[in-house]
Amino acid sequence: MTSKKVVTKKSMIFRIVFIIFLIVSGALLNQFNVGTNELFGYSTVGNYLIFIGFVMVLVTTITYFTKREKIIDERMEMLRNKTMTLTFTVFIFAAFALIIWDGIWPITMRYSIFISYAVCTMLLFYGIAYKVLERRY
Amino acid sequence: MKTKIREFRKDQNITQEELAAIVDVTRQTINSLEQGKYNPSLELAYKITKALNKDKIEDVFIMG
Fold this sequence. Notes:
The complex is a heterodimer of chains A (137) and B (64).
Chain A lengths: L2 E4 L2 H23 L13 H21 L3 E4 L1 H31 L6 H26 L1
Antiparallel strand pairs in A: 1-2
Helix pairs in contact in A: 1-2, 3-4
Chain B lengths: L1 E2 L1 H7 L4 H8 L3 H8 L7 H10 L5 H4 E2 L2
Antiparallel strand pairs in B: 1-2
Helix pairs in contact in B: 2-3
């Protein structure tokens, strides 16, 4: 019914290893000029990996020194399931609408940018839907 | 579903936070239960009933 997310020593080690992997692989990609094709028109793949690595350093530090235990109860699980279902349904309908849209007015946007917009929109929708359902239940 | 959680909680001088800690849920869930927005599982209803020192679940939770 209720589960507790605990920041254990094992999970902390895993996070640190992952952060090191991100930063080192980012630096190596930059060093060997791999993925320097200006991803999304702003920066290189390596720089993005390094950036995510440093954001994770920040988040991990904050998590380590503040809340070490997070309760996930049955209401939260119910909300999560409802939000997932809603997001998935909206995604299916949006995909269908986009197919029709693309048939009438072809989408000329770059594939990578289109996917990033789609993912961001889905995440945003999930967050808003969760907050709305949280007020209702 | 209507509940008498708030009433019994006030009788025993327990805060939402304290009751939440006893039954292992978040304070928001207790608040939601008190407002009748959320219907708990049988397990949670049983835990809350015990935490409020009541014998029967139907003393705390009222259907309809």
